[in-house]
Amino acid sequence: MAITEERPPLELTSGDLPPVEVETLGVFHRPRSTHGWASWFTTVDHKKIGIMYGFASFFFLLVGGFEALLIRTQLAVPGNKLLSADLYNQVFTMHGVTMVFLVVMPLAAAFANYLLPLQIGARDVAFPRMNALSLWVWLFGAIFFNTSWFLGGGADGGWFNYAPNSGVVFSPSHGIDFYAVGLIIMGIGSTVSAVNLTVTVLNMRAPGMTLMRMPVFTWMTFIVQVLLVFALPVITVALLLLTLDRMFGATFFDASAGGDPFLWEHLFWIFGHPEVYIMILPSFGIASEVLPTFSRKPIFGYPFMVGSGIAIGFMGWGVWAHHMFASGMGPISVLAFSLATMFIAVPTGVKILNWMATMYGGRLRFTTAMLFSIGLVAMFTIGGLSGVTHAFAPMDTQQTDTYYIVAHFHYVLFGGALFGLFSGIYFWWPKIFGFFLNEKLGKWHFWLMILGFNLTFGPMHILGLQGMMRRTYTYTEGQGFNGWNLVATFGAYLLAVSILVFIWNVIRSYRAHRRNPVNPGPDPWDARSLEWMIQSPPPEHNFDEVPVVEDFDEFWHRKYGHDEQGRPVRIAATEDVVQKGDATGVHLPSPSYWPIVLAAGLPLIGYGVIFNLWWALPGVILMVAGIYGWVLEPSTDPSAGHGHDDDHHHDGDDSDAAALDEPADAGTADGDGEGVDADGSETAAEPEPAMATASAEAQDGGSK
Amino acid sequence: MPRKRKATVVALIGAAAILLGLWLIIRTIGQPTGKPLNTLAPFGQQAQDIQDLTIPVFSVAGVIFVAVLVAVIWMVVRFREPDDVVEGQDEPTQTHGNTPLEIGWTIVPAVLLAVLAVLNVQTLLKLDDTGENPIEVTVVGQQWWWEYRYDFDGDQAPEIVTATQMVMPTGRDVTVKIQSNDVIHSFWIPSLNGKKDAVPGRTHELVFNTENPGIYEGQCTEFCGLSHGVMRMQIKALPPAEFDVWLANMTKPPAQPTNAAAARGEALFVGQCARCHEVNGLTPDSTPPFSYSDEPSPSYGVEVDSSLSSKNAPNLTNFMMRQTFAGNLLALWEGDAATAVVAVPGDVPGAVPDKVNIKRWLRNPQDVKPMDAENNQGMPNLNLSEDQIDDLTEYLVTLGPATRPAA
Amino acid sequence: MTDVALEPMDDVEFPDDVHATSTGISNPKLAMWTYLASDCLLFGGLISTYLLYRNRPGNIPGLSGSDLRASELFNIPFTSMTSFILLMSSLTMVLAVNSAIRSDAERMRLWLVATSVLGAMFLGGQIYEFTEFVREGLGFTSNVSASSFFTLTGLHGAHVAVGVLMLLSATVYSMRRTLNAEAVETLGLYWHFVDIVWVVIFAIVYLIP
Q1: In the 8-state DSSP scheme, what is residue B300?
Q2: Interface partners of A (3+ CB pairs, < 8 Å)?
Q3: What are the chain C neighbours of A21 within 8 Å (beta carbons)?
Q4: Which of A25, A523, A632, C142 has a beta carbon 3.0–4.6 Å from C66's, enabling a disulfide?
Q5: Residues on chain A touching C187 (C-beta within 8 angstroms)
């Protein structure tokens, strides 16, 4: 697909590009509107795509959270009969897959999509249409995967889905078919996205934004994309073999026909371990933005932070078999992987110490975002330390597949990844939507969550060390698991309450903002990186003028100099440094129908593979149509709008040239541009999803 | 500076609270009573080796845990932004890093880990020891119970085949050869050793050695489908003399039923149960040694024509020598006889077979543990009448030395 | 048809006043490199699978499935010939890219078509090979050795087929619309990669006994 992206990528930058010669085919008009609800389906704007990733994954967080509550309710007391063993197995499998592939990864992708271009000073990602494609492919894959609930039951093999228990003989329902095909589809989406963002970081940086000036979040996300590029094909191979086994009569994992169940284990974990870092590194990045901002200090030891991230990324490839210490591998393998795993703790420890050093001597402001980041530091430390304890292979043979492991990875993925992501939500919310989340409710959210979290997963350490096995649908009296399980269930409900508080916070803050809109301004936190240099919410073209970067924490250094003790001294007012967001005529990629069309073909093919190959035909037709529509789509339709507002100014063929010739100068079009913008958004605001309306209204109210 | 003092006080209180909490947990965590699967209460040599590694590792981790948490608490109080902060004053110094310090905290943990790595390697090598003059027991996992095959003369035809409860002598290495008939399971007796997976097509070895007679509980820990959560096992460790008694009793042929009900039960057993279950010398028509092989059966259990084979269900020869059945879920004896560490449970004074449990199982096995008999996974509900269940129970309790006339 | 709808290379490069990509490599090309890196692991996984399974069954008694192994049926001279054809297509691809850079649309189309014809011949050879195997009694589900062989070479064949489709599409496209040389170059990267992967597969699967 990459090779058919015929548009010169840098047409996004303002300046003089040669007008592209276009031969319009009548049927391939591009969609014009960048406002209104329909525009969300055709948008190629990385910010809108990021927001959609965010809302969709939050929806799946509620789904996965509901599944978690079912699990905890079932295990609250011994011998509970709420769920049958069969249903329980489906619920915990779907919970795991949902949280990994439908929540943490896409929520991190939401931030990556939204922030990467802003943080490196770009107008968009390298391939905007591919960006939309990866969103839709992922979303349709996720929906496809969840439709299994209505088509014979969910997958029931655990998220790791070990063969041969995943074979047709042992799992005759279609659940695991949906698992295999659904994950292949989502993997395609993630691969496209990873390639896109890798190229974006490597190629789209603003002048002067060298690699070692990139914000830590950008760095961590970049490492994640590289990990995805290499990890996803491995799981794709495993899933392909599983699909061939289940649906086409192959015997790759059938020991009676010479297959080897170990093949699945190795392939799964070669993907699965980097996957752990894929989930946690974005949150490390977020904490590395939030902690310096609210400590009023730069991140401590930036090169070490970046270096340890890279080290984790590399070493993450050499430790996969620590998931298999009890599987019966040879002692040499166990030894090698055990030692490698122990030493991956070193770069992780460096990160924690550097965060603490960042806070040391700072002036700490305890916003909700800061609280979540500090929570991450503390909770991830616990998860990291318990992780070290099962790097010791002999100990792991006692701990693995017990609740001790469940506790460990929830401390890493909930206490680490999800806390980081919530920190990011509170931190960037005003930037993205143009209004603050209520801090008081935010603190309620944080304290309920950290309390509920520790009550839920803390006792699991004890349960696991006392032998409670993982993936069990019940336990009995006399096993000594009673009390702590009840505590854990109580904690889980507390967590649910904290999520409700968050939702209430969003609703209330939005309503308050509707009543009395107060724009938080471009830089509400006195922050450090480039995204705070533009208006909140950012204009569609991001930067009026692509900034020339001279330093790490560029925006901070434009605001502050230093006295001889190294303390910050303001050298410029924030208002003078930020961009006004009123540039007109910035050439932006037009929306496109084809990403969503192309993506819609994949789940149809999926259903075809599972139920009847003929059903795949419409999917194939849709895909082929999508690909050719995509290729033949005019790169820039002269009659379509491109700036967020310049379609109001210009019409017809001359808009292209005029737009391109117009200097991206702030001063001239100031009032005019804003007025038109407000008018434009006013008419379009109503049918939009709530949050988008909020952002449009923010400007609306501001200009009145 | 009062802020500093305040921070120190709060941090100390925090440290005290954390230490108190840890102490409360540590105090009881190693207790074996009431926690049959406790990983921190070793009774065997190998589990003790693991424990000897666990304690230093957990101690180091605990110290770091407390240090980090206390440091965070201290900083949170110490460096909190004052309420009366004035823009442009009291700005923090912008430290960008400190390379020697950072190299230091890269190297120090690495060295610490290197020291622990030595312990790790030592323990690994110790556990990898295959045992001296061991007794070999083949352990076969299947959905959702464990079979134990004792082959003393090494002729590939086991002399003893039993299920659910494995018996071993104390003071001697026992090597289990772990195999699987269907999916991956994991054999785990936490009091004696760590776990090891049973993988179809492979044989994995694990060594047990204990000086302590006792019944040690275990649990399958690799997700294996429907009844994974209740796929349990036991090892009964007996003093060598008792173990010999056990061996002698286990190799005796079954006695003839003496009462009419048991005889009717036997007929029913041969007609119905013998399709899957085997009683040596009775069913199908074989005499020991019968046709087991040491090769892992690669057929996943389901392609076997179950009407001719007894491979898919527990061998019930000397059934009453066991103390539990149905994957260790149900006691086979009432009262102490179910948990006594003896060779022959029927010899425990006042031992009475738990017929209620047996009948409960026969009435509907799927009531006790979830199975999918249509898919050849587990025991079907045979829809026996109450009379049939009574007869069958009478027969089953004769399978073993307990009700045999004293020899 | 006759008008040359091809942008010369230097027009596609970015004007001086717009900063070029940070690495100097164009976005599509860098994306293709990244994608191919990912693809390496896809083939790596399948090659490993084949190496693990190529002798099964055979050395493990008591297993179900055909005793026949894919390697017993290899027709090395025939496959060498189709491999040579595929390698030649890399040469024609180089010529196509070269013509594209020189804005010689006619020549470029000629070489693109030549490349796709060679690719199609290779595919024909693969289909012939597969049908031969099936006739000898080795189908996809005969045993794991066969399954892994067919999966690996089949996936490679799918890559070639997609490549052929893209080559033909690019040819047709260049007759109607503006095709920039960058796209042809990127397509070339893909094609060379597919060829190199075949060299590896041929060496590992066919030549190593």
Answers
A1: T
A2: B, C
A3: 178
A4: C142
A5: 3
